[in-house]
Design brief:
It is built from 14 helices and 8 strands. The chain is of the alpha+beta class. Strand 4 and strand 5 form a beta hairpin. It starts with 22 loop residues before the first strand and ends in a 10-residue tail after the last strand.
């Protein structure tokens, strides 16, 4: 059953003393319910004040426009058995308040002494640890209830914004910390063991290679990404800025070459998507091919003899180069004529074939272009351009090859 007294602070209206008033329970809608609590300036702390199904507010605190008009009864309809409570309009909020201070009785001498003792204890406690007291702002002179409510809401919003700004600042610091842990060259370069494990290069070799490539001052001539719409070559890094620095892009390629990671794995490691990984791999592979292809790797006989291992020097002292063919599997084409050209009897599959040459100490000195898998070893040696390079080798020096290479007469 609803309470007999109004819950507004300072209001003494009761149901039995004020028969002409109506008493209204709090609405069930949460937003409207909170609006009533804020309007009557009460805080629902579940200790001193709690809104229940029986908590009521009297009609003195509602504007007359908040009620539906009472329709007069026609003659002969009779009187109602019970006087009905005026109905509030949907969304009505109490807005009429006087907030008169409630008079209190003077405490007895014993009570005053108890209060003084409590104040002394509170003062001593505050001296040890001051706790800020939260006080509700007072109504300013000439300020209406709507303005007061709006001011409280604005102050609460400002506090909320300040709290969110503080949280954002903390999150930025966390992001900065985690960003330093991302897989990047700057985070690896100081650890020579990790750099060699991931790239196969020492810091000194990395610096030498980076200086030679000079990606910041050279242009990339790969057709897919180096040319602009008007056909001009562009510098590496031109256009939309990449999320990876040039050093990180080269680091990504070296990790791919060293460890053979999948593009999806590299994307996860570097914090980028697989499309960015693929684009950077294609760009840097073409760029390094052009730059490193300018280095003459064909040695002189003096260079080969100087670096020749002792085992070769004892048994094969005149060996200049060791050659062999290698084949790579490719997808079977739909064209039958192309299938016949690519089909390798040795691999029993469609392949492309190339010739590789190394010195006795294992350094790569020759790498041919790729040919169809059906080409013979002899024809491969003739067409790849190796014979032209061998013309500069002094007579009496040998080429070591597998027995399948029938090239003695060349």
């Amino acid at each position: 059953m609803p309470h007999d007294h109004c819950c507004v602070f300072g209001c003494r209206n009761r149901r039995e003393k004020n028969q002409g008033l109506s008493f209204h329970t709090f609405p069930k809608e949460e937003d409207l319910r909170q609006a009533w609590i804020q309007a009557i300036r009460r805080e629902e702390d579940h200790v001193h004040f709690t809104v229940t199904a029986n908590t009521v507010v009297c009609s003195e605190h509602f504007d007359p426009d908040c009620y539906f008009p009472v329709v007069a009864r026609l003659p002969g309809e009779g009187e109602p058995r019970k006087k009905r409570c005026p109905r509030l309009r949907t969304g009505s909020v109490p807005s009429l308040f006087s907030f008169r201070p409630v008079p209190t009785k003077r405490p007895t001498p014993d009570g005053r002494r108890a209060v003084a003792a409590i104040r002394v204890a509170d003062h001593e406690e505050a001296g040890r640890a001051k706790q800020p007291r939260v006080r509700r702002p007072k109504l300013r002179p000439g300020e209406s209830e709507a303005e007061y409510t709006l001011r409280l809401e604005l102050e609460a919003a400002h506090k909320l914004v300040a709290e969110q700004d503080r949280k954002i600042a903390v999150l930025k610091l966390e992001v900065k910390h985690f960003r330093s842990q991302i897989f990047r060259y700057n985070n690896i370069k100081h650890d020579s063991h990790q750099l060699f494990t991931l790239t196969g290069l020492t810091p000194a070799i990395w610096d030498t290679l980076w200086t030679f490539l000079n990606p910041e001052g050279n242009v990339l001539s790969a057709k897919s990404s180096a040319k602009t719409k008007d056909g001009r070559l562009r510098k590496i890094g031109a256009g939309r800025k990449s999320s990876l620095s040039l050093e990180d892009q080269m680091f990504l390629l070296m990790v791919r070459l060293r460890l053979g990671r999948l593009e999806e794995e590299l994307g996860y490691m570097f914090g980028v998507d697989s499309a960015t990984v693929s684009r950077n791999l294609n760009m840097w592979t073409s760029f390094m091919y052009l730059r490193l292809g300018m280095i003459p790797v064909w040695p002189t006989w003096e260079d080969v003899e100087k670096a020749m291992p002792s085992a070769f020097r004892r048994r094969y002292p005149s060996t200049f180069i060791i050659i062999d063919a290698t084949e790579l599997h490719v997808e079977t084409p739909s064209s039958l004529s192309l299938q016949s050209k690519l089909f390798s009897k040795y691999k029993d599959n469609c392949t492309v074939k190339g010739l590789v040459g190394i010195t006795p100490n294992g350094m790569f000195t020759f790498l041919s272009q790729l040919y169809t898998g059906s080409i013979s070893d002899r024809k491969l040696v003739i067409e790849c351009g190796l014979l032209t390079l061998l013309e500069s080798v002094p007579s009496g020096k040998n080429v070591m090859a597998d027995r399948g290479f029938e090239i003695q007469d060349l």
